[in-house]
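Re: that chain you flagged

S.,

Sorry for the slow reply, it's been a week of failed gels. I finally had a moment to sit down with the sequence you sent. For the record, here it is as I used it:
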Amino acid sequence: MNNHSEAPVEAYEPPYYVAVFTAVRTQEQSDYSETNARMEDLVKDVPGFLGMDHAQTPGGLGITVGYFRDAGALAEWRSNAEHRAAQKRGQVEWYRSYTLHVAKVERSYGFTRAQSPAAG
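Prediction finished late last night. Pasting the structure tokens below so you have them in one place:
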């Protein structure tokens, strides 16, 4: 599972599912950081959660990609009561607009450059 280091979530053996949440936030961000951290802690308890990647542009567009082993894991996260409450608050306060795309991954691969030995 990604610990928000500089590496993306690893490529898993397909099939698995991704939920791609893309949002533009409002100026009102009261409690957003705390709620976001709570959601990240909660989703880790969902059996079948594989990891998460985040990206933010300087202009305010944010993207979060959640990876799930199967549709059941994704459905469990979608129906979590705290997550549902955070979604509602997001619509009222934190997001100017957002989209959610859910897809079944059929192909997955990755690359990691080998570490170079330190120059002596």
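What I noticed first: The CA atoms of residues 7 and 114 lie 13 Å apart.

Talk soon,
D.
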